[in-house]
Amino acid sequence: MHIFVTGGTGLIGSAVVAELLGNGHTVLALTRSDASARAAEAAGAKPLQGDLADLDLLRAGAAQADGVIHLAFANDFSSADAVARAVAEESAAIAVLGEELVGSDRAFVTVSGTPYVPGRASTESDPASTDGPVGGRGRAITAVLGLASRGVRSTAIRLPRTVHNQGTGGFAGVLTNIARQTGVSGYPGDGAQRWPAVHALDAAVLFRLALEKAEAGTSWHAVADEGDKVRDIAAVIGRRLGLPVEPVPSETYGPLGPIFASDQPSSSTHTREALGWEPTHPSLLEDLENIQP
């Protein structure tokens, strides 16, 4: 199949593009800069230069594809307003992509986060999270899944709090960056809260499987580690950087503070059984050993 991929040169997107190309698909990759276009071309994809705000370009990309995988997001968490703008931009983009695919029975694979369920690990049957700083993403994805009744094979891959590769990425990567800036490997609260995780190369396989065979209107969990304690994550970061490991105020993490402080384990049992997905790459705690001092 010829697949239109947004966000195809990021940590996750580059792994997804490589996975698609390695399994006989061709890729048209949305790229925001000349450097990203060159990276996409070097990987074997055809670049389409633009961004999520260019809705006409998104329509054109989807129109010429046999399926769409949406990964692009502004990832600006510097303030509540910045997060709101990023969510609004993405919501408009995926609405346009979905409308372009209506009636075609083509695949539309979108991305969101694993939901928070008090007292237990979330599962694929739990509804998407629609509250909090990025709750708008959950509402937009829910709308996309509803396109299953309009001839779109829409599915959602729910990513855990950390998607990692070579010791970087996701919430754990944020902890590492802040540790470098502050001289303390910190964690909010008592650090007993758990974050799920997955290696980017394992997540890429699940995106391909969903593209190829997932039924319309379904959600899947790209979870390899059900939940690592945040203080254990911070301990590895502190040891690798030679820094003290201490609790810090949740305000340290800006608008993401409430999310960072909550217990959010997640299960992928149904995903593994239904799609035959089995992670094979290093766990988060193992991969964090790649952090360079």
UniProtKB/TrEMBL annotation:
User: Which InterPro entries does this UniProt record tie to the protein?
Assistant: Epimerase_deHydtase, NAD(P)-bd_dom_sf, NAD(P)-dependent_oxidoreduct
In terms of domain of life, where is this protein from? Bacteria
Q: Name one GO cellular component term.
A: cytoplasm
> Which GO MF terms does the UniProt record name?
aldehyde dehydrogenase (NAD+) activity
- What Gene3D superfamilies has UniProt attached to this entry? NAD(P)-binding Rossmann-like Domain
Q: Where is the NAD-dependent epimerase/dehydratase domain?
A: 3-218
Ranges for region Disordered:
260-293
Task: List where this protein forms a coiled coil.
Answer: none
This chain belongs to the protein called SDR family oxidoreductase
